[in-house]
Amino acid sequence: MSDADQATIDPTRTPLSTKNKVLETGALLAQNFAPVNAVCAHLNAFHVYSSDPHRCVEANHYCSHISEGSLLEMPPGCAHFHRSITDSKGFAPDVRQCLIYDTPQPNARLIGVEYMISPKLYATLDASERKRWHSHVFEVKSGMLIMPGPAGVPNAGWEVAESKEMEEVIGLYGKTYHFWQVDRGDKLPLGEPELMGSFTSEEQMPKGLLKERDERYGISSEQKKEKRGYIEEPEVQSGK
Fold first, then answer.
1. Which three-class secondary structure string do you get for 71-127?
2. Fewer CB within 10 A of the end CB, N or C, for the chain?
3. Nearest to 45 by CA among 226, 169, 132
4. DSSP state of 54
C-alpha cells in the first residue's frame, strides 16, 4: 500500500462483513451499473464553503459527460476518455455531472455532487441562479485542480491528457453542493446541504492542505501552474 493510500484511509471505519462482500460481488455480476460505469475522469481540488470562506475541504470528483444528441455515440470510457473531449460529431459535452468523495479509496464517503456546464448554457441562466455557479479559471491556472494519474502510467504521457482536460474545464461553470461536512468531523451527513465554491486568488488558497495533497500524489501544483501558462483564460461571465 502506498503512502497516498494510507493517508486517505480512515481506520475508524468498520470493514465490510463477509456477507456484504458476497452481496457486492453478486451485484457486480448480475446488475447494470451503467450510470456509474460512465464515469471517465477523476479530478481533485478543494472546495470552499460559500457560507464560511475560511472553511474548505478536499474533493475527489468522479465525472461523467452528458451531451444532447451525442452521448449514445460515445464509446465506453467517454470516447477513449477524451478524443480531446469531443464525440464523433465533434461536439464537446455541455453538461458534466460529478460524484464527490472525501478520498479516492473504496471506503470513501460520498460528500457531494457537482454539475459543470458550458458557457453557452451558463449564459441562459438568470442573475439569481448564476450566483450559485463558480468559474474554474483560477483552479486550472493555479495548478490546484489536478487529474490524478493511474499507477504505472508514465507521468509525461499523463500530463498531456491532464492538460487536454484542463483546456476544457477552464471554460466550464460549476454548481456544487456538499451534504456531509467531513472537515468538521461529522460521522453522518447532517443538516442542510452546503453550497460550495472555488478559490479565486492565491491569498485564499489553503497552502498547508495543498502542500500535503501534492506530496501525497507526488506532484507539484507550482509546476502545473507553469505548464498551464499556455492555456488561454476565457472571459468569466458576470454572476460569480
1. HHHCCHHHHHCCCCCCCCCCCCCCEEEEEEECCCCCCCCEEEEEEEECHHHHCCCCH
2. N
3. 169
4. E
Which amino acid makes up residue 50?
Answer: S
Task: Give the model confidence (pLDDT) of 105-131 as tens digits.
Answer: 999 999 999 999 999 999 999 999 999
**How many Å apart are CA 131 and CA 239, to the nearest integer?**
5
Q: How far apart are CA 9 and CA 127, in angstroms?
A: 41
Question: Among residues 90, 132, 92, 140, which one has the least CA distance to residue 115?
Answer: 132
Closest listed residue to residue 105, CA positions, set 218, 10, 34 = 10
pTM exceeds 0.90 for this model: no
What phi and psi values does residue 115 have, to the nearest 5 degrees? -110, 135
Q: How many CA atoms lie within 13 A of 132 on its CB side?
A: 15
Q: Is 174 exposed, middle or buried (0-12, 13-18, 19+ CB in 10 A)?
A: buried
Buried residues in 112-126 as b, exposed as e (16+ CB within 10 A): bbbbbbbeeebeebe
